[in-house]
Amino acid sequence: MRLTFFWLFILFSMPAFPDQKGWEKVLDKEGITAYTRHIEGSQFKEFRGEMVVDAPVESLIKVINDVESAPRWQYKTEETRLISKNGNTVIYYYVAQTPVFLKKRVSYQKSELFVDSVSGEATIVIENIPPPEPIPDKFVEIPLTKGFWKLTPLEKGKVKVVLQMLAEPGGMIPAWLANLVVVETPYVTLSGLRKIVNKPMYRNVSP
Predict the structure, then answer these.
(1) 20 to 30 A Cα–Cα from 3, which one of 31, 121, 131, 179?
(2) In the chain, pLDDT over 70 holds for what percent of residues?
């Protein structure tokens, strides 16, 4: 009985990630590979981007957790505002860039860091949370954001970076239109991360 409760505890304590089946490679450019797939229950495609970067895991964590710098390097991010930071958990407000004829998409996000003390692999789980206050009518709340960053140390100081995300924009944006541009998100975001992580403010720092 003790063993059963132990494994139940482990199962429900681990962050839940989608399985790794069904991916279609849609881009391989400048050291960045992107994949998409359909997820049961959603009309919107999930994306996955991968690259290898010459930078410490700690510096990558520092960039990703510096949520207010996101508009400088993340795809179609207009504004981010830190709400709170408690240990490895960060809560922030997010505004996506949209065409002028559409209402801005906004959400409140939670980012939580997990680090394997043996391998040094770091995972940052991201998901939207219920807004602490009503969303004004001039905005549309993003109904779903769910994904993660995975940072895996390799030899010679390099790190494999994986960004995997499923997002639904809400409102009247058709899925077919959103799915046309979903490949741009991992490519632009990973390219931006690669450029910014080697700036002095992020190098050789602890998370």
Answers:
(1) 121
(2) 88
